[in-house]
Amino acid sequence: MNESTKKYNFDNMIRYLNDQMELLPNLESKYMGLTMPFPQQTALRNRIIESIEALIKYDQDVCIAVHLNQADDRSIEYKKIILIGNDYLHLKRIIDFMERQHIKLNIKDTCILYREYTADLNIHLKGNHSRITSLNDLFAGVEIHIDHIQAGMGYKYENKQVDEGIIHYCCHKDDEEGKELGYQLFIKSLDYFSKKLLAEGFVLGYPAVDSKIKIMKASCTMCFYRDYYYISGAHISLKNAMLKADWQICEPLMQIHMTCNKLYFEGNSFFREVENIYIFEDKEDCKLSFKSRLSTIIEILEEMYDHKKDVLDFHMKLDSFVPIEDDTQLKEKFKVIYNFDKWKDELNDQEVNSAVPPV
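Predicted structure:
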């Protein structure tokens, strides 16, 4: 491969990775979603997807996800579409927009955006990937460290490996330009796939947000320069390293501040089940502060926000994440749809394949 071709392919690959990076979902501070059944009729499905595309253009803070089942033959059955917002009031604005699109959503169909979490914070996780062919061999490896960051911050990447000599060629060892381009492409691929894998999750597909991946060591060896080898080497070695962590499902723990009528407070059974509730004022109106699992308070959020007679003020924000309770049953897989055009093509292919009679 001559130098001009090599630089041309390199520029295209970097452009591709930048474009893919832009598609990754912004999951910062998001913890709730609205669910709707996945439409089985093609006409209805197309109309709903058009409305969702209009919603995304109108409100770029919205994320789209699905609940699905996957059979042994890898075929996918979509169960629900999920419209993810920043908070409860954001979901109500989504409902208003979709109603103008003649799509009816119900605020009672609110769901929790769970998070995947690992306690493996003080160990280095190693992953490797090799590919041996008659034309070229690939050996890639990474050593990573996983950290938690403040709740609501999304996912981060940090490269602690700064040695550009991590690229090696068995043949053409004097290809200095190839090593320089290969280093930049490999590091860019590690950045992209660190965030992509965190966004896609490892257990049921829930995002591992509020995590930082640190690249402690990395290396890539092949016979001679192949740009797509750097991308696949970064992807698979990172995935193999991350899969060695003990991932768990967690739910949001919310910090609540509110003011309510004292009689309402004393007569509401919900407050009797809340631990560590702090009462600032105990007069005719009570000022309260407490923490609650989102699964505990989600059923009464409509009352808290709309019951103005007794609830005078209500503020809720994400505090942290806690492991789900033992009796919580999660079976369906979760997937964030961040490449909407690709998903539409997949649905169209499914429609075509289902219309073809078996041989």
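Summary: Residues 54 and 81 are 15 Å apart (CA to CA).
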